[in-house]
Known about the structure:
Layout: E1 12-17, E2 20-25, E3 31-36, E4 39-40, E5 57-59, E6 65-67, E7 70-73, E8 76-79, E9 89-91, E10 101-106, E11 109-116, E12 126-135, E13 138-147, E14 153-155, E15 158-160, E16 162-163, E17 174-176, E18 179-185, E19 191-196, E20 208-209, E21 216-222, E22 230-235, E23 242-247, E24 253-257, E25 271-276, H1 282-285, E26 290-292, E27 297-306
Antiparallel strand pairs: 1-2, 2-3, 3-4, 5-15, 6-9, 7-8, 10-11, 11-12, 12-13, 13-27, 14-26, 16-25, 17-20, 17-22, 18-19, 18-21, 21-24, 22-23, 23-27, 24-25
Amino acid sequence: MGIDVQAPSGTQWTISGDGHQAVVVEVGGGLRAYRHDGADYLDGYADDEVCPGSAGQVLAPWPNRIRDGAYSFGDRSFQLDLTEPDRHNALHGLVNWVRWHLVEQSPQSVTVGYDLPPTPGYPWALRLRTRWSVGPDGLRAEHEVTNVCAEPAPFGFSVHPYLQLPKVGVDEMTLRVPARRRVLVDGRLLPVAVSEVAGSEYDFTTAGPIGDLVMDTAFGDVVRDPDGGSAVALGAPDGSAGLRIWADREFGWWQVFTGDTFDGERRRRSVAVEPMTCPPDAFRSGRDLITLEPAQTWRGAWGVRPGV
Length: 308
C-alpha cells in the first residue's frame, strides 16, 4: 500500500470572501498566503516548501528569544531546548512546528487548535485556538489560549507575518510605527537597553521611508488608538498602495524585521511586522509577561487591511 505524500506544512485550508483569500496550514496553525483582488500582501511560501523564517507562524507561549533558554518562574528554574543554537537562545515558542487540528470551518473562516502538553522546560498545559477569517475589512485573526493545568503559567504571544506591497521593495516602502521607544540588542539579538526613538533613524511615529535601514527591532511604549489598540502602516512611495496591520489592546509591542538575513530573492523583499504581548527575553526580565491562572483564557486579535 502506498503512502500519501503530504505538503511540508500539512493540510491546507483555504478561506475566501469579498475579494480576499487566505491559506491556513496544519503545521504551526499559521498563515501561508493572503491576497486581495489577486495581489499578494503576505510574503508566504509554496505548498511544497518548508516554512522559511517563521513566515506566518503563531509564536507561543513566548515570542522572540529567551537567553540561553533558561528562566525562573516562582521558586523554580527551567531549561528549554536551544532552538536557535548559533545564538544559544530558545526561539519563538513551542507551537510553530507542531500539527494543529481543525476545529471548525466555513467558506470565510477556519478555526484550528492545538493542545500543548507539559514538558520539562515548560511544565504547563495550554489549549490554543485560532480563528482565521476574511471579509470586507480584510484578514482577521482571533486567538484564545487557556491554562488547563492546576497552577499559574508564564505566557507571551505573537505572530510572524511577512507583509509586502505589489512591486515595491523594502527600500522603497514607507513605514509608520506608533511607538516611542525601541529595544537595543546585543549580537545575540537579546535586550540590553531601551532607547527613545525621537530624533533617531528609528523614529517612524510619522510615516517615513525605510531606505537601507536594517531592522530586527522591537518597538514599545506604543501610542494607542481610542479603542486601546494600535496599527503599523506600510506604503508605496507614491501613495498608490498600502496596508495596515492592526492589533488590539492585548499587544503592546511591535517587532519589525526587514529580512536582511535571507538569501536570494527573499532578502529585503518584505517586512515582518509582528504584534507582541511582551518584548524579547520577557521570561527572564518579567517585562509585560502574562501570568495565566488555572482555567484562565487570554484572548487577543489582530488583522491586515489593504488600502491606502
